[in-house]
Amino acid sequence: MLPIDATSVRLFLHVLAATVWIGGQIVLGALVPTLRSLGVDAPRLAARQFGRLAWTAFVLLVVTGFWNLAEYDGKHRSGFAATISLKLVCVVLSGVAAYIHTRAKSRTWLALGGAGASGFALLALFLGVVLSQ
Ligand code: HEM
Fold it and tell me: At the N or C end, where does the chain have fewer CB atoms within 10 A?
């Protein structure tokens, strides 16, 4: 068995939180037509319940993200500053878009917020994989 240490736990928690924040948004989006067929309020109620879990995952992502940053040994690599900066911009935009989505009163803002929340999160996910290479 390979050794299990604090790095394994740190990356496990970071990736687990990413799967909930991003995977949950994708799955909930795919279930919207089915939820609509159950009742007009069903998508909103499901989204509200998912929101509690999703924001917990987002906080865990940020906490473990800064933990990653503190332990990261590739800070001297060329391109590191640009990659982590872009990733942080995507993380902030994903959070802001998700907040706009939850507060939206019109269909336009609902759609823009939802697309931004998952689009920017996917970019952050991709840049996370680039950082770990
Ligand atoms: C939407 C938010 C985020 C997503 C989806 C995300 C996703 C990921 C993923 C999938 C990895 C690869 C993990 C692996 O090697 O197995 C990663 C690595 C990393 N993330 Fe994030 N992350 C997010 C937020 C953050 C934040 C806020 C920070 C910094 C404050 C951060 C810093 C890092 C660093 C430094 C690594 C490289 C870790 C290493 O290889 O040692 N992440 N991220």
Answer: N
CB neighbour list of residue 2: distance below 8 Å, 6 or more residues apart: none
Q: Which regions of the chain are under pLDDT 70?
A: none
What residues contact residue 68 under an 8 Å CB cut-off, 6+ apart? Answer: 10, 11, 14
Within-domain flag for 1: no
pLDDT, position 59? 98
Q: Which domain holds residue 74?
A: 6-132
pTM of model > 0.90: yes
Quote the pLDDT of residue 36: 97
Determine whether the shortest distance from the Cβ of 128 to ligand 1 is under 6 A: yes
- The predicted pLDDT at position 3 comes to 97
User: 34 C-alpha to center of ligand 1: Å?
Assistant: 33
- Name the residue at shortest CA distance from atom 43 of ligand 1: 128
For residue 25 and ligand 1, the question of a CB distance below 6 A is answered with no
What is the per-residue pLDDT for 91? 98
Ligand 1 test: best mutation among 55, 66, 132, most atoms within 8 Å of CB? 132
CA distance 63 to 105: 31
